Amino acid sequence: MASTALRNATPTSERPLVRVIAALMMLALPGQVLAQSMNADQELEALIPDSAVQNADAWALDTEAARNGAPTDAEVGAIDTDVEMPELPGMTIAWPDGSEIPDIEPLSPDPDIEVAEQTTDAAVEALPGQAEAEAVEKLADADIERVGKQVELAFPRGEGAVVEKADIVARFAALSSLKTNQDDDDNLAQIVRRGRTDRELLVEIMRVHGYYDASVFQSLGGLGQRAEGEAAGTRRGPIDVQKVVVRFDVQPGPQYKFGTLAFGDLQAAGADAEALRGAFKLKSGDAINSDRIVAERLNLQAALGETGYAFAKVAEPDLLIDHERREGDLTVPVTLGGVYAFGKVTSSREDFLSGKHLQRIAKFDPGERYKKSDVDDLRQAILATGLVSSVTVETREAATPAGGQPGTVDVDVALTPGPLRTLAGLVGYSSGEGFRVEASWEHRNFFPPEGMVRARGVVGTQEQLAGATFRRNNFLTRDLVLNADLYARNQVSNAFQARTVSFTAGLERQQTLLFQKPLVFAAGIEILATGERDAAAILADQPRKTYFIGALPMRVAYDGSDSLLDPKRGFRVGLRGSPEVSVQDGLRSSYGKVQFDASYYQPFGEKLVVASRVRLGTILGTDITNIAPSRRFYAGGGGSVRGYGFQLIGPRDTAGEPSGGRSLSEFSLEARVKTGLLGGAISVVPFIDAGAVDTTSTPRLRDIKVGAGIGVRYETNFGPIRIDLGTPLNPSPGDSRIGVYVALGQAF
């Protein structure tokens, strides 16, 4: 009965559809249907009766539609669509009459776009300080500092102004994430994140300068405008990320001051305590500045090291902030460790650089009060010898302080020898002197300690030379050099020919690249024999005259410039003097040779240096005919008056060749202009030089020659390479129109 009831509950109009579905199921799953039990579940029996199981094809065709067939086209066309449709059994929804077609609604916005816009607005509203910045007025009288393309810092003016504003802005600009990445193609979300980081950075920088209650309000400009009356969170207009500007309005609050300052054991230094405390230049009532705490801690450590406290320690300072008092109490833990004096210097390589020699190099003597700077200086001085590849200088306690007497520290030096031999070559050219090739071999510690031996040779258009040199650095005392030089040279120039054998020896206080000293001097002896003839004798094919000359050359110079090879600021002055005795064919002559040099360097901005030079010389005491041609003054060439040939300025003999003189005048002016090419390594140097040589001992400047030109400098780590092109402005007959000069270092 249940099965029958279920079958009857199925509407008649739906039965053909049910039959079709059931038939399809039987065709798709025939095995399962045929396997159905005749006593199946009643609901399944209602859907698929037993007759369907027994003969599926017959059951599927047992419908009214199958018996009558499909309606014809005429029957379909005759259907009246306006006829009221009969109610269908089981249908509860009204049949549509087609007269009420709803209006087409516009498409809603793309959900992804809407979500993105809502996310952008939410990100902007979520910025730290953004809500406050929109809810309150920005600083009405603000001092705006633009940092990069998309960042502004706004500080109050007047009574609430920030004293260290420039330092704060500079530090923020150096660390700002927004400024560092300002050229990136960022989206708004990235700018928001970087703005949040920069806000935290700015708060921290304010704390460094003592503003512990500072507030920073952040806002974004260039986001597009909301419609009037729209609240925060509503959609804005289109956003151009390139026009977005992040603004930080700074409300600094009060600047905290130092309260009490404590320095651990510093008072135990006794008489030294006051001076040591003065090295830490912060006191109660000063504005708190964390950077100055760090700097003054280092100053205090250095002062302890310079006052004999070899093992003193200054630990990390501790700053305790009291917000109620708006002060910070600072504790700088100092452990003195006692006063010490220097002991002995020991070397790890006695056969190479002995402890005795290192003691000679050191600025301190045993028994002197310890100074940390003297230990550091010793390390630099050992490196300046050029003999070591590495050096370690350490202090070691040899005796502890006792009975009011200082302890003793020995200085231990560990050395690693570096390359000692050098084979070098130099090639040069100038239009006046021609080619010059120089080669040398040297051993810098052939006779330890610091006994250098060098052999050298020169082959050139106007000079050939072979010589040997001995030099001992740090001889007897630091920076004093003993030189001895023996050479044979042949010189050929338009002015003279000379074949010379010379021996010189002397002492010199030298300069080095590591130690550019303001005052240097030299003194020595020179003995030479030279066979020479001047241009007139060469033309007449006369034999050489032999001169035996003894001289005592001396030099003193002051260097107030900022660089040995490439000065940009300051000045230099130097004076040379050489009393000489000359014997030629039994005739003895005595005279004095003096030369004064001065140069001045003045920068104008970052890219221009104006340099000037003057040189004056005189020979007193004898007639020019008693002076060997090679000992006279000449002018012209790359280190003199550019544009003219080497030694071609001055008096001429009957053949029109230079004969030299007893006085010299030279002047130079040049502008060294950086171009920015090759990373700033290239400079252009216009110059003008002038010079004169006279037969009188007093410069008369009657026949002064002027040359001008332009040069190029290429900066290297060992000095500028110089190329100059010059031309004479008032040439004499036979002078070349162009002079070319190539050398290392500036012209002066």
Give the helix/strand layout.
Blueprint: H1 2-9, H2 15-28, H3 30-34, H4 42-47, H5 50-54, H6 56-61, H7 64-68, H8 73-77, H9 111-125, H10 130-135, E1 142-147, E2 151-156, H11 165-175, H12 177-180, H13 188-208, E3 215-221, E4 245-251, E5 257-262, H14 273-279, H15 290-306, E6 313-314, E7 318-322, E8 327-331, E9 334-335, E10 340-347, H16 355-361, H17 372-384, E11 388-399, E12 407-417, E13 421-430, E14 434-447, E15 451-460, E16 463-472, E17 480-492, E18 496-509, E19 519-534, H18 535-539, E20 545-551, E21 554-559, E22 570-584, E23 587-604, E24 608-620, E25 663-674, E26 682-694, E27 705-716, E28 719-728, E29 739-744
Parallel strand pairs: 2-4, 5-8, 10-12
Antiparallel strand pairs: 1-2, 3-4, 6-9, 7-8, 11-12, 13-14, 14-15, 15-16, 16-17, 17-18, 18-19, 19-20, 19-21, 20-22, 21-22, 22-23, 23-24, 24-25, 25-26, 26-27, 27-28, 28-29
Describe the structure.
The chain is α+β, with helices and mostly antiparallel strands. It has 5 domains: 2-72, no CATH class; 128-227 and 238-251, no CATH class; 257-335, Ubiquitin-like (UB roll) (Roll); 340-417, Roll (Ubiquitin-like (UB roll)), CATH 3.10.20.310; 513-744, membrane protein fhac: a member of the omp85/tpsb transporter family (Porin, Beta Barrel), CATH 2.40.160.50. Helices cover 21% and strands 37% of the residues. The strands form 5 sheets. The chain has a 17-stranded antiparallel sheet that branches. Helix 11 (165-175) packs across helix 13. It is extended, with a radius of gyration of 49 Å.
